[in-house]
């Protein structure tokens, strides 16, 4: 950031309306540029003076409504671009976001946060879908992966075959859900990660609403940040399939696991 750029954005910076990236640039510039430090101090002094000395005139009647209307008209297309643009959140000043929330209503974005185990599972899925080599044991062999898990977790985990749906096994890793041990099986189709989690259900608060019945089984289904989640309970374990793939595909996977888990726990007990 040059001196000129900093001076131009000084007001916005002081109003905390510069956006994260530019604010960081400005901060960095201010750590070494004496002349901008001076300008910054002066501007701050001036603003402080304004705040204490000048009485605030009341906003003329109807102003608020006009601002809302203007924002409404202007904000909608931009807001839509935001939804598809993803990363552009950072460039928007917080104050504008708040106004946008008031003006157009952030209902879909402000949907109630998913219950803790669900958001944690989605977070893990998202982290491991971004790393190279997310599995600790890399193997497409069900028996090898099952054997690896058997030696590391205290509960029996079925390793299903999703290949009829074109979803192939990558491997597995050990994970944790709120400090409880969790088995994490990784699958992939078309470069999209399919995460299958299994963890002891005891002590985990599962969502109360949002369950659907498929056949004789109940599944909790939701979509969080573009990722589908299907979660269910079977015996002492809870399972979850998490992926950006379709809900139907995930439910198919879930039913496959259910069938397999039924036979696994039946023979193991
Ligand atoms: Zn400077």
Structure description:
This protein is α+β, with helices and mostly antiparallel strands and 269 residues long. The chain folds into two domains: 102 residues; 153 residues, Phosphorylase Kinase, domain 1 (2-Layer Sandwich), CATH 3.30.200. It is built from eight helices and eight strands. Strands 1-2-3-4-8-7-6-5 form an eight-stranded antiparallel beta sheet, sandwiched between helices. α1 packs across α2, α1 runs parallel beside α3 and α4 packs across α5. It is elongated, with a radius of gyration of 26 Å. About 9% of the residues have low confidence. The structure holds zinc ion (ZN).
Supply the key terms.
eight-stranded antiparallel sheet; elongated; alpha+beta; single chain; binds zinc ion; 269 residues; Phosphorylase Kinase, domain 1; 2 domains
Give the helices and strands, then pairings.
Layout: H1 3-14, H2 20-32, H3 34-53, H4 63-85, H5 94-104, H6 116-128, E1 137-138, H7 142-150, E2 168-177, E3 180-189, E4 192-200, E5 211-214, E6 217-224, E7 227-234, E8 237-243, H8 247-268
Antiparallel strand pairs: 1-2, 2-3, 3-4, 4-8, 5-6, 6-7, 7-8
The structure holds zinc ion.
């Amino acid at each position: 950031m040059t001196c000129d750029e900093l001076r131009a954005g000084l007001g916005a910076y002081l109003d905390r309306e510069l956006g994260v990236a530019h604010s960081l640039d400005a901060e960095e510039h201010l750590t070494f540029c004496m002349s901008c430090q001076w300008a910054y101090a002066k501007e701050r002094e001036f603003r402080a003076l304004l705040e204490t000395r000048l009485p605030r005139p009341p906003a003329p009647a109807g102003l608020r409504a006009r601002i809302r209307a203007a924002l409404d008209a202007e904000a909608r297309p931009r807001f839509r671009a935001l939804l598809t643009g993803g990363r552009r959140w950072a460039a928007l000043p917080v104050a504008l976001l708040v106004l946008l929330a008031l003006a157009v209503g952030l209902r879909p974005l402000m949907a109630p946060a998913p219950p803790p185990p669900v958001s944690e599972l989605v977070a893990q899925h998202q982290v491991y879908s971004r790393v190279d080599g997310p599995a600790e044991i890399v193997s497409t062999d069900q028996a090898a992966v099952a054997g690896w898990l058997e030696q590391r977790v205290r509960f029996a985990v079925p390793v299903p075959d999703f290949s009829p749906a074109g979803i192939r096994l990558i491997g597995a890793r050990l994970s944790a859900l709120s400090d409880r041990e969790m088995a994490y099986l990784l699958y992939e189709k078309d470069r999209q990660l399919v995460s299958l989690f299994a963890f002891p259900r005891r002590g985990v608060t599962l969502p109360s609403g949002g369950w659907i019945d498929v056949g004789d089984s109940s599944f909790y289904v939701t979509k969080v940040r573009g990722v589908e989640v299907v979660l269910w309970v079977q015996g002492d374990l809870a399972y979850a399939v998490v992926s950006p793939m379709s809900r139907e595909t995930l439910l198919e996977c879930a039913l496959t696991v259910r069938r397999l888990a039924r036979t696994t726990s039946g023979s193991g007990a």
